[in-house]
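Handout, section B. The chain below has 216 residues.
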Amino acid sequence: MTGVSSGIGLATARRLLADGWEVTGLSRTKPPVRLTWIETDLNNLSALHETVSSLSTVDAIVHAAGFQRSARLGNLSTQDGEAMWRVHVEAASVLVDTAVNRMPNGARIVLIGSRTMTGVPGKSQYAATKAALAGLARSWAAELVDRAITVNIVAPGPTDTPMLQDPARAATPPRLPPMGRLINPNEIAGTVSFLLSETARSITGQTLTVCAGASL
């Protein structure tokens, strides 16, 4: 899985380890948890391909790496848009495309999207990259359904992670969801755990939104 060094990715790695999974984490920074870690820069897609090619059988893929750059129309950054697209979309494509032929029947793929994928003022570029994951997930789900490999998205609302304090997204400060609290990363980790469980073997091509009422 990617993004294991902090936030949702770290919480998910901890949950999957507790569930008994053997987790291989791909990230630039070493995570504060015991797993098989491979230093990986997702901006380097050719290196990512080589890294994934070196792995043995892959029973599940969780793509949790991500970041947000915010700006309103008139101040959009092409560089920021390309960087988010590369990490959110192209890295997901390389991960799955490289591993899929070594994944057993019944394997699982989970992409971490965002509630903002339906569109939010000031977050158009970020929203576009997350919205693209829905197209990938449903297309891959249809391609892999005869192998019983499920592909789903978990779309969090405002989650209490270091990304909320990132100065690069200061233009769009987080809004407290209607439930009156930010989402705990462990809630997202639990949802991913569910999608990787036997109970969720018939769920595929879906987006599960975990937003504490923000999408109401």
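Note. The beta strands are 24-27, 36-39, 60-63, 108-112, 150-156, 207-210. Compare this with the example in section A.
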